[in-house]
DNA sequence: TATAAATTTGCAATCGTTACAAATCTGAAA
DNA sequence: TTTCAGATTTGTAACGATTGCAAATTTATA
């Protein structure tokens, strides 16, 4: 989802991260769009603006965000790691035709799983794959 | 979960796959255990029994199983692809301490997601991460 | 037994990610 | 302002999982 953060610099500072230009821009891409970009996506988008940007910086920064709980990792495809600045519990839907990943709300709260009694749950992930409405219309599926 | 398949050879044949020794053994590892092995796991387990086994064969075979709907991919960690011969909808829980991945049943049916109306859903994945009961007791978490 | 097709194998290539050390930047003290 | 230490960024090399591909082997068929 689109996160409404007025001051990204403050948001990072509050999380204990010094807001360098690279960090600010990377976080903005994550927060101010509906995409769930890969490292490659972020790097490509930012390169014109920050020509000296290194892909290593993107990796390092995302690791840093993760460590501070500002970002969650989306593993839908095994060869495609995506990132999301919305860390609240929500689902992801990936269209196998156009490749887009969209968010969806999960109505009810998580069910209590009997067999996991005694376990500590720190992360929940729910995702679906299929063909999105637009692609179905377009391709007659 | 533990799949109860009396005749693995027949099961593969029914799916349109000729049951070679390699395919049989690889499928047995997937079906007859609670683990959710990686390619590495499978290769290591089978190597003593089939000394000529190639890791490429494991990859090819898993791709083939996938194509015929006999196997689902589990992407919990971005650097660790696991496989499961139980393709029915169920959840996975990964313990961050011992690393084990266990199954759990999901009680109620999937909620209808309003925003996905018109989409065709072909795969559902639900997974949790945390610390399992055993590791909590052992490590005092 | 001969031959074609299917399967397996081994190796090289690819790609995403990480390690690491040098370069650059930032902020505080002098 | 200048200097210096620490933080951050960068580029390159290394690594590991996965794939491409062609040769070798096995299996099925005539």
> How far is the first residue's CA from the last residue's CA of chain A?
27 Å
- Major sheet of chain A, described briefly? 3 strands, mixed
CATH superfamily of the largest domain in chain A: Winged helix-like DNA-binding domain superfamily/Winged helix DNA-binding domain
Show the largest interface.
A-B, 41 and 40 residues
Which parts of chain A are unreliable, with pLDDT below 50 for 5 consecutive residues or more?
A: none
Major beta sheet, strand line-up of chain A: 4-3-5
Count of distinct strands of chain A: 5
CATH architecture of the largest domain in chain A: Orthogonal Bundle
How would you classify the quaternary structure? homodimer
Mean pLDDT of chain A: 94
Overall 3D shape of chain A: globular
Helix percentage of chain A: 25-40%
**How many domain modules of chain A?**
2
Query: Beta fraction of the residues of chain A?
Result: 15-25%
Compressed to H and E, one letter per element, the order of chain A equals HHHHEEEEEH
């Amino acid at each position: 989802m689109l996160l409404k953060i007025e001051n990204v610099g403050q948001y990072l500072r509050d999380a204990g991260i010094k807001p360098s230009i690279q960090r600010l821009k990377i976080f903005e891409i994550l927060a101010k769009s509906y995409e769930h970009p890969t490292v490659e996506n972020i790097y490509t988008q930012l390169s014109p603006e920050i020509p000296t940007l290194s892909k290593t910086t993107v990796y390092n920064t995302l690791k840093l965000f993760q460590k501070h709980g500002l970002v969650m990792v989306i593993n839908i495809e095994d060869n495609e790691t995506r990132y999301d600045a919305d860390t609240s519990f929500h689902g992801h839907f990936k269209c196998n035709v156009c490749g887009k990943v969209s968010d969806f709300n999960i109505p009810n709260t998580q069910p209590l799983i009997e067999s996991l009694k005694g376990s500590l749950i720190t992360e929940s992930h729910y995702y679906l794959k299929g063909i999105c409405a637009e692609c179905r219309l377009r391709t007659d599926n």
